Protein 1
Amino acid sequence: MEALAGLTYYTIAISVVILGIIVIAVAYIIIRFRKKSGEEGEPYQDFGSLKLEITWTLIPVAIVAVLFLLTCSTMRAVDPPSADREPDIIIIGHQWWWEIVYPESGVITANEVHLPAGRQLLARLESIDVIHDFWVPELGRKIDLVPGHPNYMWIVAGEPGVYLGACAEFCGAQHANMRIRVIAQTEEEFSEWLTRQARIPETPSTGIAAEGAKIFQEIACMNCHTIAGTPAAARVGPSLTYLATRDTIGAGVLTNTPDNIAKWLKNPAKYKPGSLMPNMKLTDEQVNAIVAYLEALDE
Ligand SMILES: [Cu+2]
């Protein structure tokens, strides 16, 4: 973003200088060469000046050359070398949520991109269905996620904090509810987060949470979701391994509380009409048990 903003500011500065020169010249010419009282007819006309013509050709050529060079250096700063090394992070667009993969540690999460603040990461962007577009305005670069054609970009957040973004390419009914949270942390916080996410959770063996684990495996949840350490390994929907550590569910439609997970499970389409998560027609007991299970994974 800094490189892009720099190019914009230089271009604006050059344009303002040109505008200033033109406004002053026009004002000067209007006053200096205006018709004076007592003068008759057209004022004196002067045609053809090789010197002037060369000047007003060379100056714009020089300005365009400067802008061209500035653009080239910005492109170099912004475009990562594509396939010459493994990406640090893979962002996969789904209708209508984001899958976030950290290939080195094997961590998979959804909708929230955790980053160490100040470190530049190489991101690969893919799509499994239609074209999406990753855009977090404060972090600059907007980039398409094209099925079958991975794109690469640098992603860096200068300061710790939460940076909000959204899908910026119309991708179907719930395009507007395909929100991104980039959570930039200090190096220590980030590596703590990554270690925690990489851990295989223990399946609860007693109480209502154990009941939930059983239900989760018996009904179709595992056809679409992953929970590390269990046979559930599908990636049609977000990984639920550490759902409890995320801020939102449904790519931003609800804040993540046990209550809201229960509401979501009862009827996803109420919060995200057209969502690819079906209404599983769960009873209240099943919902409560599954919520207890998903929450217990983070203990
Ligand atoms: Cu999208």
Note: The CA atoms of residues 178 and 245 lie 19 Å apart.
Protein 2
Amino acid sequence: MIALYCTGTNVRMDRSYPEPVPLVDEAVLSVTHCGICDTDVQLASGYMGFKGVPGHEFVGVDENGDRYTAEINNACRQCEWCARGLETHCPNRTVLGIFKHDGAMAERVAVPKANLHMIPDSISDHSAVFIEPLAAAFQILEQLTVFRGDRVAVLGDGKLGILCAWVLRTASEDVTLIGKHDKKLAMAGRDVTKLRLESALAEHLKSYDIVVDATGNSSGLETACQLCRPRGTIVLKTTIAGSHQLNLAPLVIDEITLIGSRCGPFPKAIAALEADMFPVENLIEAVYTLDQAEKAFEHARQKGAAKVILEMSS
Ligand SMILES: [Zn+2]
Ligand SMILES: [Zn+2]
């Protein structure tokens, strides 16, 4: 089959990639759509040392034509962590298109049946590609109680930053998206306050109760420390190939709570899209066929690119 292959340092098309061989508890889906996210771009630059087919934000159909997406952590469901309901932290897990398991930038993908979520008819294929990152945004509300009066800042005007801002806006009336690109900031729409990073640093130091770092770069946490008020909370969403060079003293001095945040609840993301709560399709910048995946990756790599989607021609 046709697949995009990540070599650990780059991506290249493979036109005779072996068909997925499903494990006993897995189903094979024909992929129809797959989003390229910043994690994929990071993987192609060496993050996690991943070699295989990337792709974890996808829509696939089974032999009955039913549409599914899947959670990305493939847990063992036998260990102590899984027994406690912490499947996303299973030490034996593989991760779809990220760690020891091929992903969905291919004609077909194998995923654990237990991870499948059927996509309701009212959600378009293009919107459904956002279920996984939207679930990650909803994870913040699982980890942290956000009050209506909380001043919330989201750092980073990329796709994940905008999704986080939208989700947080359902809890707080005061959400500010902080970024560097007017065009991308504008995508967040009317209900979110938009601020250029330099203005935030000039006028809003130590102002926010909650700061989410969704910048995708190593300077995000330091900026978050500058914007978060004493005894405030920083939520870290950034995963990067490089490492942080950060003085942690400000966290201690300002008694800031730091929360790492990753994958989240798919049912909440699906329900939100079903209710048409967020205009996710506005975040799509380009659609390529699987054949053009290398070109699509180049596009997704460009600074300031919004969501790039691969559409498999059937
Ligand atoms: Zn992703
Ligand atoms: Zn386990």
Note: The mean pLDDT is 95.
